[in-house]
Amino acid sequence: MDFSDLIGKATGGGTTGGGGLAASLLEMLNNRPGGIAGLVQSFQEKGLGGIASSWVGTGENKPVSADQVQQVLGDDEIQDFAEKSGVPPEEASSQLAQLLPGVVDRLTPNGEVPQGSDLMSTGMGLLKGLFKSSGA
Q1: Which residues are CB-contacts of 48 (< 8 A; sequence separation ≥ 6)?
Q2: pLDDT (tens digit, 9 = 90+) per residue, 85-110?
Q3: What's the CATH number for 3-130?
Q4: What is the DSSP letter of 8?
Q5: Which residues contact 35 (CB under 8 A, 6 or more apart)?
Q6: Of 110, 128, 4, which Cα lies nearest the Cα of 59?
Q7: What is the CA radius of gyration of the chain?
Q8: Total Cβ atoms within 10 A of residue 14
Q9: What is the pLDDT of residue 126?
Q10: Could you give the CA distance from residue 86 to residue 121 in angstroms, rounded to a whole number?
């Protein structure tokens, strides 16, 4: 499954309003203290910095498990994501584990982390580019 397939799945193939999981993930990253850099720092603090750094870097993206996502983000952030994206809380960590590597990779071209509003602009541009052919 490539990134476009993941985004299609995350947005419910256009059947769910508001962009579904991908839009909720972008909002979560944008609102997180430090944005993507803050997310990477959280992974580092839990001893998982190599995983998140691989997403930002230009090499292969290392996978992350739902348990690792839960460990780094914690119950409150997972619950908030679940509510905003419309998925059951017990599925939210798994969905994030599938989406985070590809989304963070795409949002950090050439290994550079966008700052502040640039993250939301970059992310929304990415989503629009993927759905341009759907007439949305």
Answers
A1: 64, 68, 71, 72
A2: 999 988 999 999 999 999 899 888 88
A3: 1.10.10.690
A4: H
A5: 29, 113, 114, 115, 116, 119
A6: 110
A7: 14
A8: 13
A9: 57
A10: 23
CB 36 within 8 A of CB 24: no
Block residue for tokens 């993507």: 36
- Domain extents for the chain? 3-130
Identify whether the C-beta of residue 85 lies closer than 8 Å to the C-beta of residue 24.
Answer: yes
- CB neighbours of residue 61 within 10 Å: 17
Q: What is the pLDDT of residues 4-14, one digit of tens each?
A: 454 454 444 44
Model pLDDT, residue 48: 97
DSSP letter for each residue of 21-63? HHHHHHHHHHHSTTHHHHHHHHHHHTT-HHHHHHHHSSSPPPP
**Token output for 85:** 């994206």
Token pair 């950090």 is found at 108
How far is Cα 20 from Cα 106, in angstroms, rounded to an integer? Answer: 18
**pTM exceeds 0.70 for this model:** yes
